[in-house]
């Protein structure tokens, strides 16, 4: 693996990619490029955001647009076909798309050219309410168009000794928000119970609940204390449902078989995800040094495969930060090489019943890779096609990360067809 010089060569534009890949929805291609390049807003576009109607603030464990109540920036965008674009305002991005208000329409533009109409995410009814402890509910659960996101624990302890994943800014973001806004490390289970109770009162608004947070390394076994946080949180959420299980996803560390059995038996959790981040042993060691040092790539992968025994085929997946495998100086030397290696490893996981989904790598402030550059738009289109083809071939689904429930993965958007 060498410095990827090919990545710096001419890249096809959005319109050229749409013409070259006619079987891929142009909405998915546009979403991918907006996530890849980031977005900013004109003053006129921001003025169209209605605090009574649109979602303008949210709690996140990662830095996107921040968590302050002002300025009130739209959390994210919807395209005309319902495609959700999970992207925050990035005024420091080198070539962001621009949301503008032109001739009575909110539009997405690139270098002055109008590409598509967009709409801001609508605000659910619960977000302006408070728990009995006085906690604003928008700080407890973040709504996506059809999913509730809950981050019970906001710090990742792989960062304690410099082992944080190099693309990630979870802990630098937490430290900043704790200093500036007094952000708590953990959300109280009672606050979570009350917020979920209020959120599900709105008929048809939510289809799934997702939990994720930073890794906690302490306990009798590695990740035992993290496991306990999630068990307590899931049990609190479960009090709102009469069924044994409820539509839910946990994105967490790679738990052992015994830990997974506890998680399944003691909660109503339906699906389990643990992110490998990059599908290559050597790059995992470089990009995710904490994960590599505490457990290692092969053991992390083995635990994912073991989880299928507990949750079943189609209910276990792993996420990758698509494109991070091209990071310099140790990433793959060409996009073809990176794609081949990634899909080969994804197929091995698929053969064992583990689904792979990708999010688009967008280098952000506070991460070690903040000044890196993602690969081409075409790379992401090919990666999405490859992952979608594997799921179809091995009869796997990505229901826990579908275009309706999650909306963050271009490859799962292809499952709509």
Category by helix and strand content: alpha/beta
What helical percentage do the residues reach?
Answer: 25-40%
Largest sheet: 7 strands, mixed
Q: Tell me the quaternary state.
A: single chain
- The radius of gyration is 20 Å
Uncertain runs are 2-8, 65-70
Please work out how many helical segments DSSP would assign. Answer: 13
CATH architecture of the largest domain: 2-Layer Sandwich
Helix/strand order, N-terminal first: HHEHEEEEEEEHHEHEHEHHHEHEHH
CATH topological fold name of the largest domain:
Transcription Regulator spoIIAA
- CATH top level of the largest domain? Alpha Beta
- Average residue pLDDT: 92
Q: Order of strands in the sheet with the most strands?
A: 7-8-9-10-11-12-13
Beta-strand content bin: 5-15%
N-to-C CA distance: 36 Å
Question: How many structural domains does the protein architecture include?
Answer: 3
**In total, how many beta strands?**
13
* Shape, principal axes of CA atoms: globular
